[in-house]
Amino acid sequence: MSSKGRSLGGREEKMKAIVKVEHQRIIFSKYKQEIFKKAAELSTQCGVDIAILLFSPQGNTTYSFGSPSVDSIITWFPGENRRLDALRQEHRWLEKQVKAEKERGNALDVARKKWEDYINGLGWEELLQVIGNLEGLKRNAHAELQKKAAVAASASASCSSSMSGANYGPPAEEIDDEITDTYCSP
After folding, report:
1. CA torsion sign, 165 to 168 to 169 to 171?
2. Residues 51-77: pLDDT tens digits?
3. Which of 3, 108, 129, 175 has CA 20 to 30 A from 168's CA?
4. Rg (CA), the chain
């Protein structure tokens, strides 16, 4: 096989980018699993420490694998590589976000179950009253959403004029300290 491409039954095929987004997602998903599996095998069989960071084709999701852990391996390089430090901090921040979202999801499941139990115990007239109250709440929530959207639009306009370059996550000082809800995102 030459360096031009891979051989398929004696014929050379050049490696080229996949154009269709759906095909990119399928191939990425397939190879991501294969790479992580091979990394785990290499770590187990050869006793090596390994870390892999993959970014989805759309750039909105980071996938990681580490043995013993991504964080323990990345910390081997403190201060030597700014990009690595930034990735380590972003990884920690993302882990905190995932944990918080899981906790939020669990709390919502508990609340939903309580509401279902409450609703199931109501009579006909009480259900009609609940429906009326929920419709009023929906109108109020919609009005509040419109207010917040207007505020966000004006804040975004003022943030974008002061930002230089892309910002994919919070500033570093917010990652190690308590993460706040008040920072501009592009």
Report:
1. negative
2. 888 887 777 788 888 888 887 777 776
3. 108
4. 25
Distance in angstroms (rounded) separating the CA atoms of residues 83 and 79: 10
Give the residue, 64 or 83, on which the prediction is more confident: 64
Count of helix runs (H) and strand runs (E) in the chain: 5, 4
**By C-alpha distance, which of 67, 46, 64 is closest to 55?**
64
- Among all chains, which residue has been given the structure tokens 């009326």? 132
Give the distance, in angstroms, between the CA of residue 41 and the centroid of all CA atoms in the same chain: 26
> Does 157 have pLDDT greater than 90?
no
- Determine how many CB atoms are found less than 10 A away from the CB of residue 20: 9
Q: What is the pLDDT of residues 106-115, one digit of tens each?
A: 999 999 999 8
Q: Do the Cβ atoms of 13 and 5 come closer than 8 Å?
A: yes
Residues 125-132 have a mean pLDDT of 91
* Segment holding 25, helix H or strand E: helix 21-46
Q: Give the Cα separation of 174 and 83 in Å (integer).
A: 17
Amino acid at 166: A
> d(Cα 71, Cα 176) in Å, to the nearest integer?
14
